[in-house]
Amino acid sequence: MNQFVAPAFSAPYNNPRSARRLLRQYQEVHEWVHKHNRGQRVILMGGSKEVILAWLDRSLQLYVALAPLTPRAAALAACNRLLRWVKKEEPSLFITPQIGSRARASVKVGIMMAAFKLG
To answer: Are 41 and 90 in contact (CB under 8 A)?
Structure first.
């Protein structure tokens, strides 16, 4: 089951044109990741207005927009904090199916100032 969670757009994406532009960038990065990725876990794609970071592993996909001059170390630290929060809040963010009495289905999440759960 695919799921998506996102907060409301905020500045500088709080007008329809900027929000559409950002979503197009996420789509382009997502498409590139799934067509060209050769096993990288972290991909940074730069633009003039923001850098999109894609963080991938077997259980999640994270897409984040960052200021264009954000250092890689700061971007990774922010993503780590965000991932910890998503994992902590997972039951309230996503519908998580139960398997048996104690095990949960594997969760794939992607965040782009948002979160995806791919089932």
So the answer is: no
Helix (H, G, I), strand (E, B) or coil at 79: helix
> How is residue 8 written in tokens?
């409301």
**Burial (0-12, 13-18, 19+ Cβ within 10 Å), 23:** middle
Strand partners of residue 38? none
Query: Looking at residue 119, what is its pLDDT?
Result: 46
pTM: 0.73
Q: How many CB atoms lie within 10 A of CB 1?
A: 10
Q: Which of 27, 83, 28 is nearest to 55 (CA)?
A: 83
Number of Cα atoms under 13 Å in the Cβ half of residue 115: 23
